[in-house]
Amino acid sequence: MKVVAYSIKEFEKEFLARANQKKHDITLISNPLSAETASYAEGKDAVVVFTNDDVSAYVINRLADLGVKYIATRSVGTDHIDKEAAERKNIKLANVPEYSPQAIAEHTVAMALALNRHLLESNEHCHRFDFRLNGLMGFNLAGKTVGIIGFGHIGQAVASIFSGFGCRVIVYDPFSTVNQPGVEPAAFDELLATSDIISLHAPLCVENFHLINEDTLRLMKNGVMLLNTSRGGLIDTEAVLQALESGKIGYLGIDVYEKEKGLFFEQHQHDTDKDPLLEKLMTYKNVLVTPHQAFLTNEALQQIANQTIKNLDNWQADKRRVDAFQQHPGMINQRAPAL
Ligand code: NAD
């Protein structure tokens, strides 16, 4: 199959090469997919994309005109793809439905520990030979209540780790049954009102856009720690900024940001006009921002590459398959609600 893969980082190449074994003719390019770069897909059967590529209706129509029949994303999340536009053009979609949930779960817990124990400030002080303990007081995780919103692959892995620390773990997920030892289901409002740490592990869709907003923040404990390694759009960042200012939020750890497209994964140090909201957030010592890197482990990258190649293999094996979703778990149900 002839393929062009967009937004390819140097570190991904060896994983893709190992997975592909020269089966597919893949052109790797570092540029993101956009209206301008769609022309690289001319003569290709498939394009491979990532979370911050532009897979809007406009770009999909352009890809269809160029003869593209398949789009595979190297991510769990599919909120960046206009699925209805793809269906209209009869373009098949696939994602990586599950890969090393531990990679994201461990990053989430690392953020909680770094925030709670002020590790970044402490390290900075020590590097200046300032070994005083002022401002470095943390709290024990043992005995604290951790509220997990979204109990899928990653939410379950996060629950296991926090349980291991001796936390009380409560979970809100309207679509999943909670049957993990030591984990209790909770109503949404109850979780917000009783959790010391709230961690988001739900996908972004129309229904939960800005799930964390002025109203839901009001229900939380004063000084709560809020963690988001899922999708930026789950949080109303303006409202969160106000909650940081008022002290409602005591700690914020985000690996994703609602305006990260065109910003994360790139060097913007010398921009004169930096994103003002993100700049303001980062003036707070109790805010930890990482650039959508929770997936970035050796194990996760190999699994992403393996599943992406498997998706291409499946398409190659039967290009006429109609109900791809039922036959291969990696296939996205294109009839899911549009985002
Ligand atoms: P998953 O599909 O296995 O689980 C998601 C769970 O959320 C499901 O159980 C679903 O029932 C639940 N859910 C849906 N809507 C909900 C709502 N409104 N409230 C509560 N629960 C809800 O997905 P996953 O693999 O666990 O991924 C979770 C999130 O992590 C996704 O947003 C994904 O895009 C993101 N992610 C981020 C990174 C990263 O590098 N930061 C990497 C992988 C995945």
TrEMBL record:
Query: Pfam families annotated for this entry?
Result: 2-Hacid_dh (PF00389), 2-Hacid_dh_C (PF02826)
Q: Which CDD domains match?
A: LDH_like_2
Report the family membership. Answer: Belongs to the D-isomer specific 2-hydroxyacid dehydrogenase family.
Please state what the protein is called: D-lactate dehydrogenase
Q: Which InterPro entries does the UniProt record give?
A: D-isomer_2_OHA_DH_cat_dom, D-isomer_DH_CS, D-isomer_DH_CS1, D-isomer_DH_NAD-bd, D-LDH-like, NAD(P)-bd_dom_sf
Q: Where is the D-isomer specific 2-hydroxyacid dehydrogenase catalytic domain?
A: 11-319
Which one of the record's GO molecular function terms can you name? D-lactate dehydrogenase (NAD+) activity
Q: Where is each D-isomer specific 2-hydroxyacid dehydrogenase NAD-binding domain found?
A: 109-294
Q: Please provide the record's keywords in A-Z order.
A: NAD, Oxidoreductase
